[in-house]
Amino acid sequence: MEIRMDKLIAAFPENITESLEIGARVELNKKPSGVTSILVCGLGGSGIGGSLISKWVESECSVPVCVSKEYTIPAYVNESTLVICSSYSGNTEETLESVDAALKAGAQVVGITSGGKLLDVCKENHLDHVIVPGGNPPRSALAYSLIQLANIMVKYGFVDEKILKQIEKARMLLMQEEKSIKKKAMEIAEFFALDKVPVLYSTSDFEPVLMRARQQINENSKRVCWHHVIPEMNHNELVGWGLGDDRYAVLFLDSLWINGRNKKRLELTREIIGKKTKNVKTISGIGNSLVEQSLYFINMLDWASYYMAEVGEVDAVEVNVIDYLKGELAKL
After folding, report:
1. Is the same domain home to 65 and 189?
2. How many domains does the chain fold into?
């Protein structure tokens, strides 16, 4: 059956429901003890969930939550580290090497996957693991990896279950705002015209959202774009706009959840850049928590990346260059 990216994006709220149900049923039997740090290992569509979770729980979780998108793991990983390895296919070579390294370091390991070699490793080593539905592009399976990460952290006692309730509220919000989200997404796609390079800015609260949007624009519409965050970009990249450049289309994500000082920085940054390029647009988040607003932005920008693919007349699903790269690496 043909895989259609528009159908996969439309299924995001349904995926959230299914993933919450999976999480409610799953049994985790090896509750970790003495944990002083958490490391989430994953790349691409599987790794972005770790980036989101680490941001969402940083003000609540009593131990640091870091993300690794590499073959290796940090030197601090030991028996006091909880390592959560997420690979949708179960065959991501970087993640598999990280699992092996984590086990050798004596870490407490749990897996999230639809199958593949990661599932084999989890079973062979009697590790806690969550199996999610497979068969689709990993970037379309965000709900599964993200929610299982949240669920694991709730069941292991690192964060309150309110995060799952916030995710459920986000699902309802996406359904209620479906028409509006698609309309705004189409406007964003038109704003990111084919002769423009998309640039994404917000504050560090939404850096994982910007990262996700960049990845979706890359994979779905086959276009390069970049992102940066306030306040850091105010100390460097802002100067790069000195000569001005209308080749770029700049999208700001604004939100009531942004720190007051950073909100003022965002306003001033938008004003400064608005004098350097005529292509500036702002969208504001909807929702009563950082979780809700993040998922609202993600769904909208997922749709925008699909509409950009339609405008560019490219196949939003194919990632032949990635398949080629993996094929060449497999020969080594």
Report:
1. no
2. 2
